[in-house]
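Retro notes (design track)

What went well: tokenization of the new backbones is finally stable.
What didn't: we kept losing track of which sequence belonged to which structure.
Fix going forward: every design gets posted as structure first, then sequence, in one message. First example under the new rule, 494 residues:
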């Protein structure tokens, strides 16, 4: 009897060793070969599309930005985007040929039901023999504000970002051109490839969001960052600065002029507040030289501007490009560039989402909030399995200087270059920008703002590329400010 038990134990031991060896072989030695086997790839694809992928919802929890529907083919579920191009740069696409992007990629584990928080639900689905269901994610996008931004921008090339400065919630993120993610997410390989090839061949790059993915010179909107640096250095709104017709740039015969070659009004000297109200390039060039590259770079860093385009200091749910302000060493042999950088030119670059965060920091008493695009994750039964709270990421200016900046920006809108953004009964704080970006090319038109100035609930940034419909005659005040006003009005109706 003992001999039989020993034989059985030995047999079981051998089987155990064989089992371990087989598992090791499959999961380690042959893992890459099996994963790359075309037959297994097909099975994995079929298995992936057996999942009832979770919805992507707007901030109201009802408006659907992305959903799954039953398909008649071997792939059981097909991804659909009810709002199409309106929210494509937020949702991204879900393609069995070209993969995933934006929220579809960033929250793939939750949407596909693979996240550990969904294990009880996944097990229940298995026991009950029903398709595995993914979780839904609730975004911060307000459908009314998103639509208002898209309508205000119309067919003009550019981008818009609107946030709640108190929480960092992204209320709207709109860019022209956009694209329809539905063909990319279909189950027809020919349709997918045709759509993809057209998008990739388009020189306007519709797959890239002009609101958050690309960088542009901010022009005079950057003067609010320089004003913050001046305030931090002890130069108050009433500090006085020379007001010549033009500024002789150091180490060169070149000069810096105001927009249109005019002289700012106010006499031989004007205040910092007047220089911001009139957007005086000459005065801000002087301020930049007086502050120096170190102070400018420090203030830019506090607002999230990195020394290069690949730093990634501002966390966000989907990929974004943060603004760039060169390292102080860049200016050691380029002293004129200090003055040019102070008016948002030279190698300074940013985008609407980052500039909305800059305006939002001033609106929020000097505290910059992390941009938030997703507030919670809901299991298929409606339970909240993950939530994301508002998070401050920096304090670029103190509360006193934020209040001073707010008052100066209100003056810009009430009697300066930004009067096209005025809203009856609402005090709007803003700043215009008209950014040169190549000899002979029309300027980009910018406007950044927040409102109401005394209790801000929305901050917005708008860029219209190449002057929009006005071309070389464009200014931020004429082209971008009315668009920002429409977005602010929509946000204040929330």
């Amino acid at each position: 009897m003992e001999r039989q038990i020993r034989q059985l134990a030995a047999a079981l031991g051998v089987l155990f060793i064989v089992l371990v060896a087989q598992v090791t072989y499959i999961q380690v030695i042959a893992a890459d070969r099996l994963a790359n086997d075309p037959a297994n790839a097909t099975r994995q694809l079929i298995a992936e599309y057996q999942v009832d992928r979770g919805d992507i919802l707007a901030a109201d929890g009802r408006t659907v930005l992305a959903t799954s529907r039953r398909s008649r083919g071997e792939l059981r579920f097909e991804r659909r985007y009810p709002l199409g191009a309106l929210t494509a740069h937020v949702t991204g696409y879900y393609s069995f040929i070209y993969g995933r992007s934006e929220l579809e990629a960033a929250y793939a584990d939750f949407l596909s039901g693979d996240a550990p928080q969904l294990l009880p639900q996944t097990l229940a689905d298995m026991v009950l023999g029903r398709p595995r269901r993914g979780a839904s994610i609730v975004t911060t996008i307000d459908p009314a504000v998103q639509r208002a931004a898209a309508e205000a921008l119309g067919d003009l090339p550019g981008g818009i970002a609107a946030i709640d400065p108190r929480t960092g919630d992204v209320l709207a993120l709109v860019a022209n051109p956009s694209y329809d993610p539905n063909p990319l997410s279909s189950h027809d390989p020919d349709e997918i490839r045709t759509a993809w090839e057209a998008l990739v061949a388009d020189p306007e790059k519709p797959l890239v969001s002009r609101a958050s993915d690309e960088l542009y010179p901010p022009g005079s909107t950057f003067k609010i960052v320089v004003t913050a640096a001046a305030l931090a250095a002890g130069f108050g709104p009433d500090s006085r600065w020379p007001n010549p017709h033009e500024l002789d740039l150091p180490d060169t015969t070149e000069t810096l002029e105001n927009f249109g070659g005019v002289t700012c009004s106010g006499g031989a000297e004007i205040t910092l507040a007047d220089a911001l109200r009139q957007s005086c390039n000459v005065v801000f060039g002087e301020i930049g030289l007086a502050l120096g590259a170190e102070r400018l770079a420090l203030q830019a860093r506090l607002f999230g501007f990195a020394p290069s385009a690949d730093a990634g200091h501002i966390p966000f749910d989907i990929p974004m490009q943060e603004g760039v302000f060169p390292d102080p060493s860049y200016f050691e042999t380029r002293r004129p560039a200090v003055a040019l950088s102070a008016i948002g030119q030279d190698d300074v670059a940013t985008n609407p989402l980052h500039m909305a965060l800059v305006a939002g920091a001033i609106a929020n008493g000097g505290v910059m909030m992390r941009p938030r695009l997703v507030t919670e994750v809901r299991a298929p039964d409606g339970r909240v399995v993950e939530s994301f709270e508002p998070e401050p990421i920096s304090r670029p200016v103190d509360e006193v200087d934020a209040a001073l900046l707010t008052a100066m920006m209100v003056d810009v809108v009430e009697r300066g270059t930004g009067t096209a953004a005025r809203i009856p009964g609402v005090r709007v704080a803003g700043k215009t920008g008209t950014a040169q970006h190549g000899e002979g090319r029309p300027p980009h038109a910018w406007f950044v703002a927040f409102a109401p100035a005394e209790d801000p609930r929305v901050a917005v940034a708008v860029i219209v590329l190449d002057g929009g419909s006005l071309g070389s005659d464009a200014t931020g005040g004429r082209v971008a400010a009315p668009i920002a006003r429409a977005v602010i009005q929509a946000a204040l109706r929330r």
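Added context from the reviewer: The mean pLDDT is 91.
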